[in-house]
Amino acid sequence: MSELENYISEIFKEKVQKLVISKPSSKSGELRKITVSPVKDYYQIAKYTEKQVFHENVSGDEAAERCAALMNDSFMQLNAWSDTSESAIKISKKGKVFFASKKLSPEKQAENKSAGEHNRKKNYILEEGRMIEPLIDMGIFTKDGKVVRSMYDKYRQINRFIEIIDDTIRERNLKKLNIIDFGCGKSYLTFIVYYYLTEIRGIEANIIGLDLKADVIKKCNIAAEKYGYKGLRFELGDINGYDCPFDVDMVITLHACDTATDFALYNAVSWGAKMIFSVPCCQHELNQQMSTENLSVLTRFGIVQERFAALLTDSIRGNMLTYAGYRTQLLEFIDFEHTPKNILIRAVKKPALPLARKKALEEVESAMKEFNVNPTLYKLLTEENKG
Q1: Cα–Cα distance between 296 and 174 in angstroms, integer?
Q2: What domains, with CATH codes, occur in the chain?
Q3: HSE of 357, CA atoms in CB hemisphere, 13 A
Q4: Rounded CA separation 324/145 (Å)
Q5: Does the predicted TM-score (pTM) go above 0.70?
Q6: Which among 238, 276, 275, 244 is positioned nearest to 260, based on CA atoms?
Q7: Which residues fall within 8 angstroms of residue 264, CB to CB, at 6 or more apart?
Q8: Which of 13, 94, 283, 345 makes a 20 to 30 Å CA pair with 87?
Q9: Beta partners for 211?
Q10: Residue 291 class from Cβ within 10 Å (0-12 exposed, 13-18 middle, 19+ buried)?
């Protein structure tokens, strides 16, 4: 191991909170700066050119070796900070390596720890500085990759969705994913999902976005070609009865109105999709059917009935997916202050115990009886014995 590698390994014996490699040894070199920061259970390396930034994710064990390789013969300075120490490596023009490290005072350590915790809360998978063309075209990022202040809530929402997907696939060691996005609309999130899978996770993604509006489909295909997203295409078609051209790994359905969500979930189950991510919208069906004697307090006021009907709809959907053999969760998508439609249904196919399936179905049937409702997904999954 070289002297440089030894020093960098010494730095990474602690959890590095920030590392900067700077001062290129040659003006003709492509890279101008490199930064390293912790993201969840790995380190993210950002390599900056004059106009772009490229990212690479490495494990803690790989980080020191990778930094040494990037710095060797290309850069002359490295600065690193942990919660307890500050280190610096400088290389002279003659190639001599100088290393300095100092422990921080208890007061400074406490300050760094507090700042680190604050910063980690703001670590997003789609971080600032990335040249993410769809986010730039959406007006969320500026041309140099900075978040537009007025679009910060939308930026957080998009990151939250990607985090939910990331939590689901991170440990699966996936090489390829076939995905259907029902009711894709203008496909903002579809483009971001494709970027995340291919550029950040290195997964080969084959995504079809489906919508009923021909002009939207045309514009989306033009955008996919512009971005060079070869595995992403858009088709004109109905959610109900769509003939999928491949085995489906993941189904995404965002804001499909009312029972369109139910047909999307039904199709996902019918195909045996391994993962389902759904943000329902406009749950009118049960609100129009609902009546109850025992719990009339929930239907006395229109606004309460409307919101309860939406919650009941999604609870039934969650139970029906459990009945169909999925481990199902209802998660908060974005903060309630931004919209009352803040639930995301995440379902992962997993062999279910007969008793769990039976209980899930019984709970749905009990709610149906109490509120005199007949939800679409229940009919679809029971009348044809799906699941």
Answers
A1: 49
A2: 3-119 (no CATH), 133-383 (3.40.50.150)
A3: 16
A4: 42
A5: no
A6: 238
A7: 182, 183, 239, 251, 253, 256, 278
A8: 94
A9: 236
A10: exposed
Taking a C-beta distance cutoff of 8 angstroms, is the pair 195, 134 a contact? yes
Residue 25 contacts residue 11 (beta carbons within 8 Å): no
Residue indicated by tokens 């942990």: 82
Half-sphere exposure of 52 (CA within 13 A, CB side): 5
| Residue in this structure with the two tokens 């759904």, named with its chain if needed | 278
Q: SS3 letters for the chain?
A: CCHHHHHHHHHCCCCEEEEEEEEECCCCCCCCEEEEEEECCEEEEEEECCCCEEEEEECHHHHHHHHHHHHCCCEEEEEEEECCEEEEEEECCCCCEEEEEEECCHHHHHHHHHHHHHHHHCCCCCCCCCCCHHHHHCCCECCCCCECHHHHHHHHHHHHHHHHHHHHHCCCCCCEEEEEEECCCCCHHHHHHHHHHHHHCCCEEEEEEEECCHHHHHHHHHHHHHHCCCCEEEEECCCCCCCCCCCCCEEEEEEEECCHHHHHHHHHHHHCCCEEEEEEECCCHHHHHCCCCCCHHHCCCHHHHHHHHHHHHHHHHHHHHHHCCEEEEEEECCCCCCCCCCEEEEEEECCCCHHHHHHHHHHHHHHHHHHCCCCHHHHHHHHCCCC
